[in-house]
Structures
1.
Amino acid sequence: MKVDGKHFRSIWRERDGWSVCAIDQRRLPHEFVVARLTSCEDAAVAIRDMLVRGAPLIGATAAYGMALAMREDASDAGLKRAYDTLVVARPTAINLKWALDEMRASLAPIDPVERAEAAYARADEIVEQDVEINRGIAGNGLKLIEASVTRKKPGETVNVLTHCNAGWLATVDWGTATAPIYLAHERGIKIHVWVDETRPRNQGASLTAWELGHHGVPHTVIPDNTGGHLMQHGMVDLAIVGTDRVAANGDVCNKIGTYLKALAAHDNNVPFYVALPSPTIDFAVNDGIRDIPIEQRSGAEVTDMTGRTADGRLETVRIVPEGSPVANYAFDVTPARLVTGLITERGVLKPDRASLAAAFPERVAAAAE
Ligand SMILES: CSC[C@H]1O[C@H](OP(=O)(O)O)[C@H](O)[C@@H]1O
């Protein structure tokens, strides 16, 4: 999307034709730094350390990681080593394994001498497919925002709450949860976004607020615990969040705290939507709460905060007493019963197995192979 009028994507192939550029999201919102990935290991570290993050972008980065690997060693052993290196970079977003499976399916059957070129071509397809899918999510989600407009007085603003960052920074472009928001904004609909800061890494405060602000979308950053109060007082017309993995039964895995927002939305009759591209559906998992692996990250993400001092320096400070144990669960799972609908590129679906299978039969078949 736009950064002060200039179009950007979150990841792209450098002009040299082989290295890969990605916005270093650990540096935002204070610095806009573009990192250059030149090896499979670079891609794996970028995913693990959250230089790039967000399920679809993790998948795109892994796809280019496989292409970088094929430049280094296109043998069968090299292909396996690259897959095994990248697939363990983070455990929860299914897009990582989906992208690697797609790359391996394209590369394993062909002559190793052809693999590097084929890998870049397939990775480019995955990148462009993400953008097209997210445009579809935008159009399908827009209908929900337009329905909200009809329920309000003329000229009133539609207030959307979102959690974490499921914006263009979490994908190649457009985002998932933010795609309908950007399209509504472009169509002149008066829209405002309540942005959950999303402790501990503050993807909302640091990334969602940054991208909405630089694209000109009205928004307000709120502490994570504010959403319930806003919903009780009719200040949220709908919630739209992203997801890292949707189980076949419609359970939704997303950033920690999503479940609590869904509970508040259910208690206040606020529509709670989840936006996702079909590669985020895991038809191999039938019970999200039981079977989706929840990443636990370093306690330093909880004990420390990084910010800009009054004189412009970036400083990291400790906010938890030395010696106090911390727990850092990066995701939780919202049961399907709390989800109003799943906004996909093929429409807004009920969060259940039959609806998901009917919309994406090819994904069901692939999971059964
Ligand atoms: C469109 S996927 C966005 C999804 O990914 C985020 O997790 P992380 O920042 O740890 O990669 C969060 O769960 C978002 O909803």
2.
Amino acid sequence: MILDVDLRHRQGAFTLDARFQSEGRLTALFGPSGSGKTTLVNAIGGLLRPTQGRICVKERVLVDTRQGIFVPKHRRRIGYVFQEARLFPHLNVRQNLHFGRWFTPKRERVADFHAVTELLGIAHLLDRWPSTLSGGEKQRVAIGRALLSDPQLLLMDEPLASLDEERKAEIYPYIDRLRDEGDVPMVLVSHSVPEIARLATSIVVLNDGRVTASGLASDILRHPRFFPQAGLVEAGALVEARVLRHEEAYGLTVLQAAAGTLTVSRLNLPVGAPVRMRLRARDIILSLAPPEGISALNVLPGTVVAIEEVEGSGVDVTLACGSDSIVASVTRKSMERLGIKVGLPVQAIVKSVAFDRDALGTVHAKNM
Ligand SMILES: Nc1ncnc2c1ncn2[C@@H]1O[C@H](COP(=O)(O)OP(=O)(O)OP(=O)(O)O)[C@@H](O)[C@H]1O
């Protein structure tokens, strides 16, 4: 288990009461402003002492108030990256990176300077001064500095929040690589659904100091009800696909997912390239028969596997489409009119596909 947290902490009128476990290589802590994300990260990092509870990172007990254990922050081997890069202005990039190693005992230094700078694409910046770097470059150096301290875990508290969309898109592929190729698990605080859909393998949803959901990113993102603050706008299923072919004459790309094929605006990706798509629950229309005479190109056959009532007049209908699962938000009235029940075969008409592309961030292909 990478993270095992069960803690209570009071600060003023606010109480954090958080319990979750995560095996994720990148665990996103998601929730609205004031829900307790930073408080939780600070408790894991040792910047605050929780009133009560237990925190384990990779099976190592960092806090156990019952047993009187509280490992001080400099002994936790946890790297921190904040919203602002906080580089030392009087040190160049190389010196800033070496500073990361300063507090790690020599025998415990395993992170390879060359490998880290290559992975983050900062090897050509080593002699530059922080003031000459872009926001995205500064954050990559800050991540490198944290990694070179040989942490057991990397905590990132909204590291991209102060960057514009273009700079964020520049950093995403590096975080993808760290997640997939590096050996340091990460915790990312974020309140951006597209960001966590792009990066997270596990998600912990916080609301008003409590964990309202936690689990695999693909499971959590399917359910609109876990994202009340995002409304139904952002939530949806994550579906992996590959570029099957391009239809140049129409400016379209056909993607192959387990659920079927989907046609979207021409993507600048080679045939065979993997794409992670988000099919938002509110962008799925259900039909009992294969639709005819409509302009939508994306219709996926599926079977209803679950129906969940949500607040208000809505219902979440989960479909199995091949080995993918897709959620549609429909009104209770539509559900009754169509006679939707578990086991019923239906057609999911996908109005719009949101997906991520390296270096381009999230793109929306509408009304295909
Ligand atoms: N030192 C403190 N004393 C009293 N209350 C505090 C203290 N620090 C934070 N709080 C309160 O605790 C709550 C949780 O704050 P926290 O910063 O953890 O939220 P957050 O989810 O990280 O928010 P944001 O996304 O805005 O950074 C807030 O209501 C905040 O006002």
